[in-house]
Amino acid sequence: MEQGWLSGCLQWYRTVRHLKARQIAGQVRHRLQRAFAMAGGMGKAGSPEYPGCRWAPSAPFLPPVSAAGEGQTAAGIFRFLNHGEQLGFPPDWEPAGLSKLWRYHLHYQDYLWELEFDQARAVVLDWIGRYGPGRNRDGWEAYPVSLRLVNWCGYFYGRHQERMAREPEFGRVLWGAIHQQAAWLETHLETHLLGNHYLENGVALGVAGACFAGAAASAWLARGVEILREQLPEQMLADGCHFERSPMYHARVAWCLLTLLNTGAPALAELVRGPLAKALQALARLCHADGQIALLNDSALGMGAKPRELMKYGTQLGVAGGTERELAGAWGLPQAGYYGWRGEDGTGILCDAGPVGPDYLPGHAHGDIFSYELCYEGRRIIVDSGVFDYEVSEMRAGCRATRAHNTVVIEGQDQCEFWGAFRVGHRGQPREVRWEPEAGGFQLQGWHDGYQRLPGKPVHARRFQWRSGGILEVADEVWAGRPVAMVSRIHLHPECGVMNCSARGVELGTPAGRVAVQFSGPGRLQIEDGRYCPEFGLQIRNQVLAWEVRGAEARFGYRVERIR
User: Fold this and answer.
1) Which of 108, 350, 482, 542: CA 20 to 30 A from 342?
2) Domains of the chain, earliest start first
3) Contact at 8 Å (CB) between 385 and 531?
4) Cα–Cα separations (whole angstroms), residue 396 to 20, 64, 393, 418, 537
5) Chain-centroid distance, C-alpha 262
6) Nearest CA to 223 among 267, 269, 176, 258?
7) How far apart are CA 537 and CA 85, in angstroms?
8) Are 331 and 347 in contact (CB under 8 A)?
9) What is the pLDDT of residues 351-397, one digit of tens each?
10) What is the Cα–Cα distance from 336 to 242, expressed in whole angstroms?
11) Residue 364's closest CA among 333, 387, 348, 346?
12) b (16+ CB within 10 A) / e for 182-193
């Protein structure tokens, strides 16, 4: 009992010692607000007289998610994270038995963009009338408030600005609710988390402030600009990537910057235009030739606007993200730690040799140092396992674990000390990473210290060699002060399967033709069952190649190539 208590305390220490003082102060404030309902700005809906809409967007606002096209929402079926519920229309705003992330999506109200004006108005009026502020209400947490404010402003005063001019009574009620929520948000900024949450707070205040005339909106705009001016230089790395290193959140941030630019507010445009151009260029690198993001760290498909929609939107606003021809060849995003190669036929690879994220905010990180994804002719062949949920669950732990990625596991442990749904104690760091582009390919190598906390202090080093024709050679080296068990895994896309197997290699059947994987060095080949989670709430069985090795020092690896 005593040892377990001590172990738990040490785990907490390894987790919280990286936090910023600002986060710790924010945690105290946040917990007090939740415990005592210290709800500044949470009075009854009401505000000064409606001041009028002042923005003039240069293009239609892009919805935050790609249209599902199913028309189920108006029938009362709300579907998020691949799970649908009949909630009525307007819905039950506090449904029981659903995950927090699902309930969050209900209150984001992204689905307004799929509805006709009268339907959207009915939903919003019902929410305003039946879902006022209250202790521990999901829809009144700062993150859903932020996303909902952007949706309300963009949908009603962007897409339907002319109709709103003919709806003075609805406009008065809507303005009162927007005023109430923006005032509330100003006193509940997510400084206890920072990162993408705090950025979304600034985006919401910037959008609402740009949308309306009047003193209140001007104050929101100034506060939003203040947050963005502080956060963008830190959160947007020099290579254009978002610093949490999740392609999914990077795409969301790109959408936010595009939305801010389209408000037409000069103060916002000045802040976002430079980071936005780099962000779109980086987003293009973080996608495969199928036009969808790589599933690195906490990333899933279908959670936002499609990357190609973002690129097109950027072009409409005068910000380019790079053509397919410009994307061909070797590329590197050194601050994020992503490197790869893209061929004109859609063959390509994306390697992860970066840190798990900012030390004070690694919650969306996975144990994927020196992992990668590989495509032939635009079809995914070797994949990351993705993300299934954000609950404290076996699936959450499994998707974050090193064994779910295409890298080496030592002693069955993870490169980082993952616990809870988002917490990380000890975290491994890549070291001495070197990338050399070559004609037709590249070399990438380095080592990491993620296993040095284990007995024998094991070290894993890896070298990637990518050659023309789509030939991948991976060389691993492990050394430790005692014999350790090692497993190098390769996760196959569910459409790929083992056709023939020998002691040291396999022949795969894939949508891009036959592919050979040949292992080298000491070891034993096993074929495992895996789970591929390309979308939240979706798991598909796949096959995993596992090369098992044991020793104090070992050199092993494999070669992947198409069979012509």
Assistant:
1) 542
2) 1-33 (no CATH), 51-128+135-235 (1.50.10.100), 327-562 (2.70.98.70)
3) yes
4) 26, 25, 5, 10, 11
5) 23
6) 267
7) 14
8) no
9) 999 999 999 999 999 999 999 999 999 999 999 999 999 999 999 99
10) 8
11) 387
12) bbbbbebbbbbb
pLDDT digits (tens, 9 = 90+) for 46-97: 568 999 999 999 999 999 998 764 579 999 999 999 999 999 999 999 999 9
Kindly report the length of the chain: 564
Mean pLDDT, to the nearest integer, of 93-122? 97
Alpha-carbon distance 408 to 371, whole Å? 9
Contacts of 320 (CB under 8 A, 6+ apart): 277, 280, 314
Q: Is the dihedral of CA 132, 29, 392, 243 positive or negative?
A: positive
Other Cβ atoms less than 10 A from the Cβ of 333: the count is 22
- Are 370 and 353 in contact by the 8 Å Cβ rule? The answer is yes
**For residue 364, how far is the Cα from the chain centroid?**
7
Helices 100-108 and 142-154, interaxial angle, to 10°?
30
Q: Which residues pair with 410 in a beta bridge?
A: 486
Query: In the structure, what pLDDT confidence band is assigned to residue 44 with cuts at 50, 70 and 90?
Result: very low
| Cβ atoms 451, 460 nearer than 8 A | yes
Alpha-carbon radius of gyration of the chain: 25
Separation of alpha carbons 335 and 354, rounded Å: 8
> Nearest-CA neighbor of 219 among 27, 58, 41, 23?
41
Half-sphere exposure (Cβ direction) of 249: Cα atoms closer than 13 Å: 21
By the 8 A CB rule, do 512 and 562 touch? Answer: yes
Query: Checking phi first, is residue 240 left (phi over 0); if not, alpha (psi -120 to 50) or beta?
Result: left
The three state secondary structure string of 215-257 is HHHHHHHHHHHHHHHHHHHHHECCCCCECCCCHHHHHHHHHHH
Structure tokens at 496: 């790929």
Q: Closest Cα to residue 254, out of 211, 284, 230? A: 284
Tell me how far apart the alpha carbons of residues 334 and 434 are, in angstroms, rounded to a whole number. 10
Find the distance separating the first CA and the last CA of the chain, reported in whole Å. Answer: 61
